[in-house]
Specification:
Elements lengths: L7 H11 L10 E5 L4 H16 L5 E6 L2 H7 L1 H4 L4 E5 L14 E4 L6 H6 L1 H21 L4 E7 L29 H20 L2 E7 L2 E2 L10 H11 L3 E3 L6 E2 L2 E2 H14 L6 E3 L5 E2 H11 L6 E3 L11 E2 L4 H5 L8 H12 L7
Parallel strand pairs: 1-2, 1-4, 2-3, 4-5, 5-6, 6-11, 7-10, 8-13, 9-14
Antiparallel strand pairs: 9-12
Length: 350
């Protein structure tokens, strides 16, 4: 079933905040990997909106393994004459002809299912996909490339560090199979550094944390999506842990403003944390969802919180983003309401 378009207000919000930046892309071509995922859908719709509104006459070529599935999911995007679908796997796709001055490498989402069930496939997709994409960029005139990396590259955030800065040099456990996604992203950043040194291409690094918005799967491992799904269905929120881990969530329209700004304005090889610095516990998140959606569903917590223990955190420091003029503009409860409104009761299963 086709996904609904992103709300016009959200697209207008993105354009209003990024309008001066788009002149760089006038008459240019951009190549995007990962176009069918959460990030990709928002990138494409915001690109199309800016392209039409500003008459940029820019074009986007989107790598996809299945153009048919993509057309069925986003017909309002794929019908746009500025969008070209290029069939292929990110690990070995054939290079389209011509110059692409801009490139966004957003392939490989943080799939807990794939990390658990097919970790070697995940690692191959990340490493070989990044290498292939960089080879394409180096040979097709790319000036600015954005890698959507992850806050996972820092490894486990120390419990006494409330917000992790880009200068933190911690790392995942390289001998833990659960680190496959994080280590893949770390290696991808290194690949970007090597290619930037060899070619002079500007490589921008966005270390992304947690987000909320239309297109976020409600049936994956994302707590906020699961909670919205449960409230839309009117059923009890079942929490597997003790509810104490602390997270933060940035709404997708803000995410797009940050990503487009980093691509077009950020210095090369300077990583930027992308996310909200307004932290709350998972239990507090569940109650925020209930409150935002004016519900009275119950919350069941599987384990009792033990006082005095170390608190698990995944929260970025975003001072570096603030230096680019970036900030969170959509509050959490409003983000929850917009996400739920886009899905609606008929989409509660995701």
């Amino acid at each position: 079933m086709a996904a609904k378009p992103i709300a016009q207000d959200d697209l207008d919000h993105i354009l209003a905040a990024t309008r001066p930046l788009w002149e760089q892309m006038r008459g240019e071509r951009i190549f995007i990997t990962g176009g069918t995922g959460f990030f990709g859908c928002w990138l494409l719709e915001s690109f199309c909106h800016a392209n039409r509104s500003l008459d940029l006459k820019a074009c986007a070529t989107v790598l996809t393994r299945s153009p048919e599935v993509f057309r069925a999911k986003l017909p309002h995007v794929t019908d746009d004459s500025a969008i070209t679908l290029h069939e292929g796997d990110v690990r070995d796709f054939e290079f389209p002809e011509g110059e692409f001055r801009f490139l966004i490498h957003a392939a490989t989402e943080a799939s807990a299912k794939q990390a658990n069930e097919a970790p070697l496939e995940m690692l191959s997709t990340i490493l070989a996909g990044t290498q292939r994409t960089l080879e394409f960029a180096a040979s097709h005139g790319t000036r600015k490339l954005l890698l959507t990396s992850s806050g996972a590259v820092y490894g486990k955030q120390p419990s006494n560090l409330t917000h992790v800065p880009e200068s933190y040099t911690g790392a995942p456990n390289s001998l833990d199979p659960a680190s496959v996604y994080a280590e893949g992203k770390r290696a991808s950043e290194l690949m970007c550094a090597l290619h930037a040194k060899a070619t002079g291409m500007e490589c921008k690094i966005a270390r992304c944390f947690a987000f909320c918005g239309p297109h976020l799967p409600l049936n994956a491992h994302f707590a906020i999506g699961n909670f919205i799904r449960d409230v839309l269905a009117g059923r009890t929120i079942q929490m597997g842990g003790d509810g104490t881990p602390r997270r933060s969530y940035l709404y997708a329209s803000d995410l797009m403003i940050w990503l487009w700004t980093i691509l077009l304005e950020a210095p090369s090889l300077v990583p930027f944390n992308v996310g909200s610095d307004e932290a709350l516990s998972i239990l507090e998140l569940a109650h925020a969802v209930i409150r935002a959606l004016n519900s009275n569903v119950a919350v069941q917590v599987a384990k009792e919180a033990m006082g005095g223990g170390a608190v698990a955190r995944y929260v970025p420091q975003v001072d570096r983003a603030a230096e680019l003029g970036l900030r969170q503009t959509v509050g959490l409860e409003e983000a929850i309401r917009r996400t739920a409104a886009w899905y609606g009761p008929d989409k509660e299963s995701g």
